[in-house]
Amino acid sequence: MVVKACLFDIFGTICDWRSGVSAVAQQVFAARGLQVDAKAFALAWRAQYQPGMERVRAGRRPYVALEELHLENLRRVLAEQNLDLPDEDQVRLNNAWSNLPCWQGAPAALAELRKTHLIAPCSNGSIAMILGIARRNGMHWDFIGGAPLARAYKPLPTVYTQSVAAFGLAPEEVMMIAAHNDDLCAARAAGLRTGFFPRPTEYGSGQDTDLAAEDAWDIVATDLSDLVDQLTG
Hints:
The chain is an alpha/beta fold.
C-alpha cells in the first residue's frame, strides 16, 4: 500500500521546545531579577507534561486543551521552586509553547513533502498552539489533527485513528512520523505506517532516550530531510 499522507508529532520532532521555552523563561526571570537556570526550568516544566495528560487519559478529569494543562503544570513547578511570578508573566511563559521555533530545515522539508503527500500534525497541542507555531515558522498543514480533533491525548488509539479518518484514508495509507519511539509504537498498534528519525538534543546534551530506532519502523532516517527523500524518492 502506498503512503498517501503523513501525520507528524510536533513537540520535539518538528519544534525545539526546550530552546523556545527556556529563551522566554530566561527573559521573564531576568526581568524580575531572579537567578534561575532557564533550561533546567524548561525541563522541570516538561516533566509535568505526561502526568498532566494521564489524568485526562485515565478519565480522572474531562479533556481540556493543552494550554490549560501547561498553565497548571507551570504553577506547580513555580510552587515547587518557591518562585513567585505575577499572572502576566505566567501567561507570557505559557504562550511560549504557541510560538516555538522549529528545528533547522524542518519547514523546508515539510514543504517539499507536501508537494506529493497530504500532511497534518498529530500532536497533543491545541489548534491555537499548532496554528501559532505554523504562522511563526511559515508552515502549511492540510488540516490539524491530533488531540483537539479526538478530544483525547496520545497515545490513546483514537488520536491516531480520527486523524487518519479525517484524511479519508485507510490507516495503512498514512504514516506517523516522530522522533519518539513510544509515539510510533502506539501509531503502529492503530494500524498506521511509521517513520522515525532522531532528535538527539531534544532534552539537551545529556539525552539518553530516543537516540535511535528501537523497533523495525517502516522508515528509519538520519533526519527529517532524509525521511522525506526516502518517502518521495
